[in-house]
Amino acid sequence: xxxxxxxxxxxxxxxxxxxxxxxxxxxxxxxxxxxxxxxxxxxxxxxxxxxxxxxxxxxxxxxxxxxxxxxxxxxxxxxxxxxxxxxxxxxxxxxxxxxxxxxxxxxxxxxxxxxxxxxxxxxxxxxxxxxxxxxxxxxxxxxxxxxxxxxxxxxxxxxxxxxxxxxxxxxxxxxxxxxxxxxxxxxxxxxxxxxxxxxxxxxxxxxxxxxxxxxxxxxxxxxxxxxxxxxxxxxxxxxxxxxxxxxxxxxxxxxxxxxxxxxxxxxxxxxxxxxxxxxxxxxxxxxxxxxxxxxxxxxxxxxxxxxxxxxxxxxxxxxxxxxxxx
Length: 326
Ligand SMILES: Nc1ncnc2c1ncn2[C@@H]1O[C@H](COP(=O)(O)OP(=O)(O)OP(=O)(O)O)[C@@H](O)[C@H]1O
Ligand SMILES: [Mg+2]
Description:
alpha/beta, globular
């Protein structure tokens, strides 16, 4: 019977904490520097961490906060909780403030204000927060913020709204270079894949095709191991990597789709059906299909978001903009 290639599945899970963080020394240094005032009791810092998907933002922030500020930080993933009330409930629970019954958001904020034990609040995937007024409530009540986002600061709605009280220290995470992804894989494989089941050449191949996204690289290796096991191979081959890479591409797309707002989904679906449309025509159909009132400005914002996500392409033509599925 062929031996199992995947020695430890848990090593490839999202919540696995690697023993070493590779290729992020600069960002760790910046974060530690920004956290200095907090470590001496001044929680009035606001940090904005941004970069594309799978580049270690969550890993670095949670690991460093755990190390530098044990028990003095709160972590909320806004993908799970993005309504103000849900965020507040998370914050209260992690701050150890016990609530009698279901309190309104306003009452929870009042309770938080009265508490003299301050925290640093880390809001991951903060671009999904529904009402940004919550940020102001945290800041004016003396709580620091670590905001993590896929959007650069210049595109962020927090800045676009001109929130003057929100001064942010910015930390950028770029895509990994091939060498760093290789190191990340090498270390993970040594724990998660049986000995001699994947060669360095294949790890190098994966490092080159993952676009600097460590999550995708890890997923490719995990899926390739599974593919190889299914067809009773002893080792991972080029073919298993290629098949896995193809699969991760479609999984990535469906993950992006999950994050779209209702309005963005409507626009994307119209364009998907038509492949290519003039901006005016697309706007007309969108207006017709949308249940809410839509205006030109909101339409332009949705189109900018869809372009940034890489779902839609704009081709400039003399007679006006034309959009097509990317
Ligand atoms: N430097 C690293 N060393 C080891 N593992 C890493 C490193 N960077 C990322 N990873 C792994 O890659 C995966 C993705 O990392 P992480 O969740 O931190 O990405 P992210 O930037 O927060 O992505 P997203 O924007 O999609 O939330 C995780 O499994 C993480 O453990
Ligand atoms: Mg993350």
